[in-house]
Amino acid sequence: MNIFNRFGVMLDCSRGAVLKVSAVKQLINALQKMGYNVLELYTEDTFEVEGEPYFGYLRGRYTGAEIKEMDAYAAAHGIELIPCIQTLAHFTNPVKLPRFAEITDVNDILLIDEEKTYAFIDRIFASLAKNFTSRNVHIGMDEAHMVGLGKYLDKRGYCNRFELLNRHLEKVNAIAKKYGFTAHMWSDMFFRLAANGEYYARGVHVPQEVREKVPEDVALVYWDYYHTQKEDYDAMIESHKEFGREVWFAGGVWTWLGFNPRTRFAYESLKVSMQSVREHGIQNVLITAWGDDGGECSFFSVLQVLYAARCYADGEYDDRKIAAEFENLFGVSAHDFDLLELPDTVPAADYRTLCNPSKYLLYADPFSGISDATLQDFAPIPYANYVERLSAAKLRAGEYAYLFDCAEKLCRLLEIKANLGVRTRAAYRSGDKNAIAALVVVYEHAKKLAEEFFDAFAARWRIENKQFGFEVHCIRIGGLIKRLAYCKMCLQAYLDDELPKIEELEEDILPYYPVCDENELWMGKYRNIVTMGEL
Does the pLDDT of residue 394 top 90, yes or no? Predict the structure, then answer.
């Protein structure tokens, strides 16, 4: 017997990658097979709003007609398509434009108590009402850390931020109700304001006077992708229940650290969180698939994790049985799909460690690689072995072979790129010109492999996503290719005595983590990986 009212996926269509309508339909087919009944499209600005031509401008926004097409297809397959938007923070891209300056508080946060802000939000809801059948809506409101501390502070002075948040929520909820919507929202800001910025802590109690002001018809969505102890989820759910409002839960499939999913950690966090959800009678669950920093990871690479999450929620925890059932449903091996995290698998590092070496080793500058010392305490990552395993799985993957092709070519590149900066600095400092001459050849080979990876990644992108957003990866990977060529030229010039020294290689590379933290082997943002300079 199904104990859930709604069990769905939240799909990030805002961080660069906007899934094509055909890919959304393919995902809907898969969700129906797996027993899901909700799909939320997370669209910060990637949907059409009448009267707002700059909203989603050059971002691949869904047109009203596209939303209606997806909505109808979802309904025909037993899936409720729910709009998932933002109404306070995470307006990262719109605020780049002068059009939105007058309604921006600070960073990516809207200006509360500004009439024009609510006129803008009203237009958003008018468009949602016109294009979506569902009258449930996710209104966001998460991670507004600096709310009230920018233009609001300049114009109106300091305001208790609990009061500010609740006042804004009341106004947004009134607009939602005007168009017939029932809202749910991320809950973290209530907890962060109560606990000095902390969201996850056992025994946190939001003040009663704050809890009472949350509209009774707004549900709170507790999101947590990070814990592997059931007790952490139990405590947070109990804290949420103190509000006396409906509580939703959102777990995650870890698609947001780079080009590959973090599968093993996703399994463990979802297994214990779904146990807690069942015991506490939570009836609405979302499994989030975020795409931070460019939408690099394919959401189809975690189909087996989504199926496992559904099974865990139903009380089935036998992973071998779950994997066999997945293969019966999809005709592909769950164990093969698990191999897609290989590019970020560090030998001897606990799988609970936050790892994305394939991203920071890919983009590490060959002469100024600030991450070059990060893996010094671990054995080299066996990328050649990973290439063999992914190549074999690709032959068995059928329609999903393109996922393995992309991961395989990434590993082929990293087999020589991962330690290229370390080797280059060592050869230069030793004065071994024979070693430097050999590296000139390696740089040319790395450039060729980078071009092959780019082609595979571009092919994967075209299968799944609209073209908008790929310009970012042309710049990133194209920049890598050009940098490899330039560094090769500098090495050759040094060998030919045309360049007296290579300044970057004269400088020591410091540990990225001054204090070793064995739980972190990651660097999240491209702009923080590629240079210490301004980007």
Answer: yes
